Every structure is written in C-alpha cells, then in structure tokens.
Task: inverse folding
C-alpha cells in the first residue's frame, strides 16, 4: 500500500515536493501505525487467542478505512481526514500477517514453527509482489455511477479484504498448541 501513497495523496490535494514533505510524513505515519497496531492487536490476540474475531475485524476495518477517504470532501478536516484514514489503515492492516502466521503455527502444531512462518512469509510476499502490477493496471480504471467515482485499485483492495474476511468467517479449527499448553498447566 505504501507504494501507492503518492497517487492517493496527490488526488486529494497534497503536493509531492523535493525533500521531506507531507506525503513522506503521512507514509511514515502509516509505517509507525503498522508497528503500533501489530504490537497492540498482536498482544490482545496472544492473551485471548481470538484469532478469528481479530482477523474478521481487521478485514472489516480495512474495508472501512479504504472507503472512508472517498468521502473526504464532505467531512470536516477535508484532506487531513485522508491522512487519518491511512494511519488507521496501517494500524488495522499491520497485524494481519503476524496474526496469520501465529494462527498457522497454532493449527499446524506440532509442525515446525519456523517452517510454517517461512511458508506464510514467502507466499504473503509473493502475493504482494504479484498484486503490484495488477493494482497499477486497476488504478487506470475509473468507475463512475450513483454520484461516486471509484478507482479500480480501490475495488481490487476491497475485493481482497472482503474475500479474506468472508473466508475467515469459515475458520473452525482447533488451536493445537494452545490445547497442549492448557493441558500441561
């Protein structure tokens, strides 16, 4: 997502200028929010083991944070609301991969934890890399109707978040590592 900040920020009136600028600061805020969200939500999931709830809420929150900037002209604060949405998006989307990796380890126990995380990382990064050219092409598509104009890359990201969230609702597997930990206590 960070790779597409310039386009979205310029669209709502921010100027990309040489040196440190507002787009750079918003991007840094997004990255910091990813880390903070990962720590806070990851800590919650570690304590409660509510992977499914956290995952569904992350995907739902992602969809809301992606759509909200479309209405920046009608909210107080105007284009600053876009920055707030991007920071919120970072805090919500940041924990998804670590929570997914931890969930994979839980359900695949006693398989090697490092192998599970490595496979998840490889395929997550591969999917992201394959998504970049697709999102670039989708960004060229502009859908209009019912008084709204929506870029194709937004539709693509919403489809991914929605599909992942719907798939997460079907999750129903025992958490083998947690079961073993609670048996030994």
Result:
């Amino acid at each position: 997502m960070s790779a597409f900040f310039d386009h979205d920020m310029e669209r709502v009136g921010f100027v990309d200028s040489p040196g440190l600028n507002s787009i750079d600061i918003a991007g840094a805020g997004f990255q910091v929010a990813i880390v903070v969200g990962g720590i806070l939500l990851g800590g919650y999931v570690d304590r409660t083991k509510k992977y499914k709830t956290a995952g569904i809420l992350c995907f739902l929150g992602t969809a809301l944070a992606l759509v909200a900037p479309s209405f920046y002209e009608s909210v107080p604060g105007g284009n600053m609301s876009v920055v707030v949405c991007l920071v919120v998006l970072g805090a919500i989307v940041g924990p998804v991969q670590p929570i997914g990796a931890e969930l994979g380890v839980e359900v695949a126990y006693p398989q090697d934890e490092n192998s599970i995380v490595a496979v998840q990382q490889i395929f997550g990064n591969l999917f992201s890399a394959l998504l970049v050219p697709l999102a670039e092409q989708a960004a060229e598509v502009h859908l209009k109707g019912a008084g709204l104009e929506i870029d194709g890359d937004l539709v693509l990201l919403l489809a991914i978040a929605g599909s992942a969230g719907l798939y997460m609702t079907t999750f129903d597997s025992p958490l083998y590592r947690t079961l073993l930990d609670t048996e030994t206590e």
